[in-house]
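Worked example 3. Consider a protein that binds flavin-adenine dinucleotide.
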Amino acid sequence: MITEGRLGARAVIVGAGISGLAAAAALASFFETVELLDKDELPRTPRPRKGVPQDLQVHILLKGGELAFESLIPGTRAALLTAGATEVRQTEDASIWERDGWHATRDLGHSQLMMSRPAFERVLRRQVLRLGNVVISDRTPVERLPSGGDLTVIATGRGDRLLAGVEAPETVLGIEVSYSSARFAKPERFRGEERFIACIPQPPDDRYGLVCPIENDEWLITLCSRFGERVPDDLDGFRAHAETLPMPDIAERLREAVPLTPVRGYRIAEARWRHFDRGADLPARVLPIGDCISSFNPTFGQGMSVAAGHAVALRDVLASCGGDLDGVAAAYLPRAAEVSRQAWSLAAMVDLEYPRTKGERPPNFGKIVTGTEAMRRAAALHPEVQLLRFEIGNLVKPDSSARNGPAARLVAREMARAGGRPRER
Ligand SMILES: Cc1cc2nc3c(=O)[nH]c(=O)nc-3n(C[C@H](O)[C@H](O)[C@H](O)COP(=O)(O)OP(=O)(O)OC[C@H]3O[C@@H](n4cnc5c(N)ncnc54)[C@H](O)[C@@H]3O)c2cc1C
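Given these inputs, the predicted complex is written out as structure tokens:
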């Protein structure tokens, strides 16, 4: 472990999910002991647990998240691969249907690691425990903000209650997304296939689907819908729903896939972003992280990567705070908000294209949609735009990098070709 210089004796983190673990990695070199408290019994094997009911659903780790975890605990990528993560080369191993066509197959020089959420969390837990000064106390529910630590991080997730009483402005979108997922063994002819398949529909179509190649040569298959539509949770209905997708590849695999679990559903009514950086009355030395700050429409696969980005921001602030723990919140919260902002704006602009999504559309919304569409079309034509689009969507590069440079000029040309006018809505 790299010792950055001690700032205090004990830091406490409530919640040992992804953001709690990322926070532990960020704090470990600044405190003698970092104590993680979780209400759940944390399993030794990679199996689902009650405290994270979403863990049966697909959890994609974006490239930016992988890089952030690697920077927090070097060796994490190798540990994920050793634990059986599938490496999906972008885009040779991916079949992505978006709106009205397939993404081009090109070598973007990136890959993504795919595994189930319980397996991912288990690898991270081991990585964090290897740091030597992190203690995890499970079966320890925390009912009120703890006192006594030099710093307290709240990582209790989307359903957090510890910070519920803190007044903070918030942005909320009524998205009403329904997930249904199950794990499958591959039939003989697909064994060893490490192909990631995605169907991303054109709003207002809501038929979204994913086939993720995960550990043990299994598939985790997810079908999503929005608003009143529900994907059936019986296997026949699940398969029948896949047959209605605008591309055949998911239905084709699902027809022969051998179920290992029942189909399980999860409904997300809202995406929520709490702006703690805008004058919220947080108690001294208490910091929120991860879903406690921003919880998104999960179909964009951002939550774990944003949590890792928050943790990197926290580590960097601690490294430069000069021992002033009372000043950490003021420096950390705006940096964490910037990490959330990029993810939020990527997801929200698509969510708001659905006329039934409740939330405020920006005045230039039509123009934003036109620009986004121009970038998608330019990505099909030009490798450099496809790479930039991947890197922005995967939180590797800031969205501001779309404004300048050769790729930006190709997008502008595509926009001009399409008439440059906002689409009729
Ligand atoms: C359906 C669905 C699909 C998703 N898919 C993706 C995806 O593809 N990619 C992605 O990156 N993200 C995805 N996410 C988001 C992802 O689950 C979260 O963003 C990520 O887990 C980070 O959350 P967190 O650590 O803040 O909270 P969580 O992972 O929810 O962890 C919170 C932890 O706090 C503990 N806890 C809660 N309250 C208390 C308390 N009072 N005392 C003690 N312990 C407590 C819980 O037991 C739990 O361990 C998805 C979410 C959903 C709902």
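Take a moment to read the result before moving on. Residues 96 and 102 are 6 Å apart (CA to CA). The chain has a mean pLDDT of 94.
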